[in-house]
Amino acid sequence: MGRTTDLPALALTMGDPVGVGPEVTVRAAADPDVLAICRPVIAGNRAVLQRAADVCGLALDVEVIDPCPELESELLALPLGRVSPLAGKASVQYVLRGIDLCLQKEVSGIVTAPINKESMNAAGYRYAGHTELLAERTGTKETAMMLVTGNLRVSHVTTHVAFERVAALITADRLATVFDLTYRTMLQLDIQNPHIAVAGLNPHAGEHGLFGTQEDEILRPAIELVRSRGWDFSGPWPPDTVFARANRGQFDCVIAMYHDQGHIAIKMIGFDEGVNVSLGLPIVRTSVDHGTAFDIAGKGVARPVSMIQATTLAAQLASARGLG
Questions:
Q1: Would you say residue 306 has pLDDT above 60?
Q2: Is 136 found in the same domain as 156?
Q3: Which terminus, N or C, of the chain has the lesser number of Cβ atoms within 10 Å?
Q4: 16 or 3: which leads in pLDDT
């Protein structure tokens, strides 16, 4: 695959073929702001993308790489908006192809449209989501998730695990990893000396042991350790107030302890506008922060804001890493 412009190429994976992924992908690939900063290359099926482009009233003027063209007729025959092992299989193949393009230095980053976890698992791919798939393909042991919407940035210590397991997973080693990945990503986002707040696990951040001991026993020592390096970390802060304070600009980023603690805050601010950034990978990866939206698939009404912002952020991160 040769480069035809001086702009960095980014691989946009089209997601589940029967969800809204193809629609938001073609809209992002045609967006003038996106085209001003990168050259989109879509990993997906051209016929499915053409169907989406027709619904959206767009011309499909973009390079498409299909790792499984033999599935085209079957994919087109699938009903939109329904769980399908075949769609799950194809969506994983698109992601794998995008990762490989990054590893082969053919593109500077990957931007993923939504996949359906049930379809993916029905196809035999036993992953909780994109992140685990990305980590395995790239040989990465430690990753973290950061969500971004507007002024609010939230990293997560744990994500797709049962709530009853969360406390045991919040260890000194895990905190050190997430603190380090978050700090370095903030620098790549051109935020120097970032003020990073750490949310408590328990109500009122434990209230000095009244409602839990993790804050005093694990979180405070971890915070003091990175503060000794000169990093501007603070907390643990009561989780019911820290996100509102960050949204008002008092903090540059919040580190959440578990999935819903961080996700609820992000989705209250920008439900279909957030961006998911994978931290710790050897490649740049961003994603939409919404699902396959089966209920509106094929109607041409899915908003592409998250996909556009994810692509913009991927270009910024790639430039910061010298990959553009």
A1: yes
A2: no
A3: N
A4: 16
